[in-house]
Amino acid sequence: MGRLVCDVALAPSAPRLTSPALAARVRATFPNLPRHACVNDAGDTFAAVMDCTPLPHLLEHLVVDLQAQAAPPGSDDVYVGVTEWTDEEAGLARIEVSFTDDLVALRAFRDAVDFLNAVVVP
């Protein structure tokens, strides 16, 4: 399994954190996201922090979910990721995700960014 590293820059006007309203829109399109395993201080799953987590952390989970959706039926591949701010004030973060197919991972990043742009920047 490979590892893809992506440096992201949020638009200056973009929120740094998710909100309950944004999380609800995300859950409507990605219903499995709340069940993702997630290392955080609030619980064992992404649901524990989904209403108020850094936007790049949400992007990480979207990429993982899109890769899982693209996996062949019966696949036992497990995708993981990690996100950290490199400069929170400037809106810069680094996201790392595992992948089995680099093209699927790149498409997942593209589609996840497109989705977030559509729901965050109307």
Give an account of the 3D structure:
With 122 residues, the protein is α+β, with helices and mostly antiparallel strands. Helix content is 37%, strand content 19%. The chain has 3 helices and 3 strands; from the N terminus they run βααββα. A 3-stranded antiparallel sheet has the order 1-3-2. Helix 2 packs across helix 3. 30% of the residues are buried. The mean pLDDT is 93.
Helical residue percent? 25-40%
Number of domains: 1
The number of helices is: 3
Give the strand line-up of the largest sheet.
Answer: 1-3-2
Our measurement of the CA-to-CA distance between the termini, rounded to an integer number of angstroms, reads: 36 Å
Judged by helices, strands and strand pairing, the structural class is: alpha+beta
Runs in which pLDDT lies below 50 for 5 or more consecutive residues are none
Q: Which of globular, elongated, flat, extended, rod-shaped describes the shape?
A: globular
Number of strands: 3
What is the average per-residue confidence, as pLDDT, rounded to a whole number? 93
Pfam family, one: Cyanophycin_syn
Protein name: Cyanophycin synthase-like N-terminal domain-containing protein
Blueprint of the fold:
Elements: E1 2-9, H1 20-29, H2 55-70, E2 81-87, E3 92-99, H3 102-120
Antiparallel strand pairs: 1-3, 2-3
